[in-house]
Design goal:
Oligomer: single chain
Distance between the termini: 43 Å
Shape: globular
Number of helices: 17
Number of domains: 2
Order of helices and strands: HHHHHHHHHHHHHHHHH
Radius of gyration: 21 Å
Helix content: over 70%
Structural class: mainly alpha
Largest sheet: none
Length: 379
């Protein structure tokens, strides 16, 4: 019986074709997200931890990494002699098969539960189903249904818009500039455009609390595309300037460490300088996190149990993100509110067990078959 249960949860890790350094970045990012969310279970009894700092941007780890990985793919696709609409269609199909089905499964399940158990009128969250809940304006109540979906909306719009912009730019300007110049122009245009929109909004809004900034700047699609494009810029440098990428990886690492220290240590400064927080704080964060990539990209493999654990977390990153907050954490807090310290600690431990058990099953029996299906579509 025990062996059968173990077999149900056993996850065979495939280390082939992976870059261990990038797995480290995924693992660090998801652990920081889970730590911040799970803290609410024990918030009444313990002070805020190191990871739960308002200006420690956890999601930017994923944005920059996504930009780097997808940027590498798009650069290789665009440099094909036969580049055309078929390449874009296959790219979109592979990306959306990978992410959309599980996301829709989770939010559809939440809708069913809300209709079944809510005691007040439930407004159907149609914007979440088309990733439009935070495109330029936030929802009236961003925490009403599935608040963590904001970052997935940013990524899905990146998958849609950036390849389309590259294709349109290619049609319009390929006779005048080469592919390298065109890609760099697209990257810089989106970075500058996103930053400009933040400046425009900052000039037309009064000083904000961290809560309001979170809603009106931090979680808005068009104001966050530049963070992903910094990862794309890193992919551009790696592709066209490989020797520089390898030569300065350690220098970039040192700057990354120093930059992260400044962001964390200067959290009171960012709070006191509201205009910078609204405009260039996210720019500096994206640049700093981008500088971690050259070193991580050079770490091709890990060893021992440490490598297995990091790769395990990396494999489960997407399902952990889908499940960790609203489906599991919020459900536990509403159904079993902690009434004392022992109960809070017990719920904290149960939360992690339940989260990783559920994520392992979801990855093994749902996500992996989807990934196998995606492999049938040639890139």
């Amino acid at each position: 019986m025990i062996k059968r249960i173990i077999d149900i949860f056993r996850l065979d890790i495939d280390f082939s074709g992976r870059t261990f350094g990038l797995d480290i970045m995924r693992a660090v990012g998801i652990l920081m997200v889970i730590e911040e969310h799970s803290y609410h279970l024990i918030a009444d009894y313990f002070p805020k931890g190191f990871m739960f700092m308002p200006y420690m941007d956890k999601i930017s780890f994923f944005f920059v990494l996504s930009g780097f990985l997808v940027g590498n793919i798009l650069i290789n696709i665009y440099n094909r002699a036969t580049f055309g609409t078929g390449d874009l269609m296959r790219f979109w199909a592979r990306r959306w098969i990978r992410t959309v089905p599980l996301y829709l499964l989770v939010i559809t399940g939440l809708v069913i539960l809300r209709y079944a158990f809510t005691r007040v009128g439930f407004v159907f969250p149609w914007r979440e189903f088309i990733f439009f809940q935070n495109f330029y304006y936030p929802e009236a109540d961003p925490y009403y249904f599935y608040p963590e979906g904001w970052s997935l909306a940013v990524e899905e719009w990146f998958y849609l818009l950036v390849p389309a912009v590259i294709f349109i730019a290619h049609l319009l300007f390929s006779k005048f500039i080469n592919k390298k110049q065109l890609l760099l122009s697209v990257i810089l245009t989106i970075i500058i455009g996103s930053t400009t929109l933040r400046i425009y909004r900052a000039l037309h809004t009064s000083d904000m609390s961290i809560y309001t900034w979170n809603i009106w700047f931090y979680k808005i699609v068009v104001l966050r595309l530049d963070t992903i494009m910094f990862g794309f810029l890193a992919a551009f440098v790696k592709h066209y300037y490989q020797s520089l990428w390898e030569r300065y990886k350690n220098v970039c690492l040192y700057i990354f460490i120093a930059g992260m220290a400044v962001i964390i240590a200067g959290h009171t400064f960012w709070a006191a300088h509201n205009f910078w927080l609204k405009t260039f704080f996210l720019t500096q964060t994206g640049i700093i996190m981008m500088l971690w990539l050259p070193k991580l990209d050079s770490i091709k493999a890990g060893k021992g149990r440490w490598a297995w654990l990091i790769t395990y977390l990396s494999n489960l990153t997407f399902v952990l993100y889908l499940l960790n907050r609203t489906p599991i954490l919020k459900s536990m807090m509403q159904l079993f509110p902690a009434k004392n310290l022992p109960m809070a600690i017990a719920e904290y431990l149960v939360y992690f067990i339940l989260l990783f058990a559920t994520a392992t099953l979801m990855h093994k029996y749902l996500e992996r078959p989807i990934i196998d299906l995606r492999k049938r579509i040639r890139q």
